[in-house]
Design a protein that fits this description.
The structure is a homodimer.
Chain A: H1 16-29, H2 42-49, H3 53-66, E1 69-72, E2 76-79, H4 94-100, E3 105-116, H5 119-125, E4 132-142, E5 145-155, H6 156-159, H7 171-178, E6 183-194, H8 197-202, E7 210-220, E8 225-234, E9 240-245
Antiparallel strand pairs in A: 1-2, 3-4, 4-5, 5-8, 6-7, 7-8
Chain A binds a DNA duplex (30 and 30 nucleotides) through helix 3.
DNA sequence: CCCTCCCGGTTGTTATGACAGGTCATGGCG
DNA sequence: CGCCATGACCTGTCATAACAACCGGGAGGG
């Protein structure tokens, strides 16, 4: 068995279902499987990948949750229409959103420091004038290319707990699960600006290129603002997508 | 077995994992389990519900996808956060949104014409290759300053009815009230680009200024795409704002 | 010709069993 | 006293097996 997917080739910590899921997703996205085309049956995949049915189903289940495939009992599993956007009524961080769409996201921490909160931060986080805040600067990578500079500001009682932690992952799950802060919603504001020095340096941009700037103020469930961020995306390599409904 | 959950009590077509999932969800929402409280372990639940572990895990998997619980290997499964508050963002046109905020908005129609739909429009509106569409080009003004160029594409059956109408107002209410088309939702995509000739001309921009570009595909309530638009906003005079919630 | 029944194929559900890997408390050793 | 090894407990992953529910087409009967 395990002819298609190598079982645990020494240093292959990735679970089998993850390998299969990612491969199927790649093949769906690159057109190997057309929209509404039937995927091989679970039984066939068992043979192809040399794994048991439960493993195949686990991979398909994830793809189903992502909205990439749908199943019909007695008929098979099919590629669904290529919806560009799905999870958008939901507040998600960059990494969460990208992971949900099958991209490989990572972050590099540039700095974390305590400073006197700038005016905009004071207003956003509802601080006292002159109060300190914690600033976290990160660069976001997508498929190993820098796409976003992220400047986050936290109130002291939350931000001080971040020193010494690994901030290269997603912050939202960390706030929720590690800090026990239930997140509520976020106010988002988007505009377009020209690349400044910082953007040119970290995003490898030339002078005069366009930047998609996002201001995001995230609240906890009680409505207290807890995270104010500036996100500067390369205009040529990122789109902010979402879906809204009428009434 | 099956002491807690009755197996298939005559007319109980609900799968066991659905019954367990729904019961756990109810208990989470009504406070039987507090936020961040540990749920019984999978092993314990096997005994309580009298089912196998795979069934328990299937129930927990669904709750996990709903964002109600999260797991930590070696520790247990925990309640993540209370119920979902769906604050749906309302789909509004430019004029509607501006009027709601007390601004004075107007529009000038540059052109309306029938043409062979460009590729992106064909894909968005789900047309046949080579099919015609109606294009409406407008400039949007806020307090008498131009802030947005709006290129809208409609399928023929809808667009042809627009000739001769006054298009200087809002299109969405027109579609709903005059045409009797109930609107559903819209997929929105934002990025940043540099001003092109058209933008420079109509928005009074210089070369090399940043543009906030919005692609908006609006559907009717049945899900049929009926309006595909490119909106190009001056980066320095307009912000796109909205609010989203975390599940 | 048409309708029905059946059968092979497919997904849906569930049981049992096993091992890997993480967490945590306890207790023994230095 | 402090450190760490150990084991109990937990979730994560995967295999094998079975039956149910459903779909589609073909065989057979009217």
């Amino acid at each position: 068995m395990n002819q298609g997917i190598h079982p645990m080739a020494e240093h292959s910590p990735l679970p089998l279902y993850v390998q299969i899921r990612d491969r199927l997703r790649r093949e769906i996205l690159d057109g190997t499987y057309q929209v509404h085309e039937r995927l091989p049956s679970e039984n066939e995949m068992m043979g192809v990948f040399g794994v048991s049915r439960i493993t195949i189903r686990q991979a398909l289940r994830d793809l189903h949750n992502e909205g990439l495939v749908f199943s019909a009992q007695g008929k098979g599993t099919f590629v669904s229409k290529p919806k560009a956007v799905q999870n958008v009524q939901r507040l998600e961080g960059f990494g969460e959103a990208m992971a949900a769409q099958g991209y490989e996201a990572s972050a590099r921490v540039l700095s974390i420091q305590q400073l006197k909160a700038p005016k905009a931060v004071v207003a956003a986080l509802d601080l006292q004038p002159g109060e300190d805040a914690i600033e976290v600067k990160r660069v976001r990578y997508l498929n190993r290319s820098p796409v976003c500079i992220e400047n986050s500001y936290f109130p002291m009682d939350i931000g001080r707990r971040m020193f010494g932690l690994d901030l290269s992952g997603d912050i939202f799950p960390m706030l929720e699960n590690l800090f026990g802060i239930p997140l509520g919603g976020a106010d988002i504001s988007l505009d377009a600006i020209l690349a400044d020095d910082e953007a040119q340096q970290y995003l490898n941009l030339k002078t005069g290129e366009a930047i998609l700037r996002v201001e995001r103020l995230t609240h906890n469930r009680d409505g207290r603002p807890i995270d104010f961020e500036y996100l500067c995306y390369r205009g040529d390599s990122f789109k902010y997508q979402f879906r809204i409904d009428r009434k």
